[in-house]
Amino acid sequence: MRHNIQVPFGYEPPQKKRKGTLFYYDTFEEVTEEDLERAAAVAAGRDFEKLVLYPLHEETVRRMYRHVTVSSYYKREDRLHDWRRHAGHRHVIVEGWEGKRKKYTPLEAALRHLTENYSAPYFVYVTPEMANVLASFSSFEEWIVKVRLILTAQPQNLHPRLQQYHHRWDAGEDQQ
Length: 176
What we know:
With 176 residues, the chain is α/β, with parallel strands linked by helices. The chain is 39% helix and 15% strand.
């Protein structure tokens, strides 16, 4: 059904100020509230429409890091929901897709899910260690052209693929 509306001559609809989505891809095992606030500040400073916190399932962590153990997915997810409620960030979303899957989720599947459900352009907020792990995947070159990385700090050691695609990432602290 169509509705006609009247607007004054020369009216232009307001432009959306915020655009894009920042995905925080992490285990959230050792992430502090200050780290979460820093991620929210990066998202606000760069005018992202949404900050999506994406906690990894235990099986995903076990396959990515052979020697790292993490607490249960739901404990980490509940802590993120509590922080979001107490901090009052309206543009922060805790993505629970991996919790519903309850198994290992490859990075490509996670990024496909995120890019299908949130608005472009896409940026992934990760630690330097996580960036090196992601760069070690064979599919890194396939998806790095679709997303950009924002690192939480300047990396000490760089994976060769991160060096090759240095124009597709930057450190978050540089842009605040």
